[in-house]
Amino acid sequence: MTLSTADGSATFAGSVTINGNLSVPNGSIGNAALQNPISPLATHAGANSFGLATGANVQLLSTTISVPAGFTQALVFATATLHAYNNNAGADDAYESVFINGTSVGASSQVTAAAGASTSLPASGTLLVTGLGASFAVVVKCSSGANAWASSANNFINLDVMTIFLR
């Protein structure tokens, strides 16, 4: 079957099924869509020598992800690791959470550290970000439980982000 119109165009409303080969003229689908349908990006950020405050989690680390031209969505995987020293006289809790483009992903992670002990705590999350602008942020927020933990040169936090941009 051959379908043709006076101006060479056709519009279909509803579903269309093609049984067999589909031939499209050269150049009718842009090279960027064919050759680069995705664009990966790996990002790392880190900080050290900070303390932990009590109360709601506060931002300790952030990284900005720049969006390549022509991409409209991003599948983002973020993992943060906190290592902190509890310098208090009693056991206390540390909390950590990850935010992607302003959205909290996953529950806040929690661990208890004995008095005078260090502890490590991971937090991670995944989010499909749509309606992308020029950039978005991935943020790590942390806090302590009953007492503030003093700044220590041994305290550090790492954030690793894997982003897959989609057209």
List keywords for this structure.
4-stranded antiparallel beta sheet; Jelly Rolls; 1 helix; rod-shaped; 167 residues; 3% helix; mainly beta
Description:
The protein has 167 residues and is mainly β. The chain has a single domain, classed as Jelly Rolls (Sandwich), CATH 2.60.120.760. It is built from 1 helix and 8 strands. The strands form 2 sheets. The protein has a 4-stranded antiparallel β-sheet with strand order 1-8-3-6, with no helix packed on it. Strands 2-7-4-5 form a 4-stranded antiparallel β-sheet, with no helix packed on it. A hairpin with a 2-residue loop joins strand 4 and strand 5.
- Beta strand %: over 45%
Largest pleated sheet: 4 strands, antiparallel
Helix and strand pattern: HEEEEEEEE
| CATH architecture verdict | Sandwich
End-to-end C-alpha gap = 33 Å
Name the overall outline. Answer: rod-shaped
Runs in which pLDDT lies below 50 for 5 or more consecutive residues are: none
Question: What integer is the average pLDDT?
Answer: 92
User: Strand sequence of the main sheet, in spatial order?
Assistant: 1-8-3-6
CATH topology: Jelly Rolls
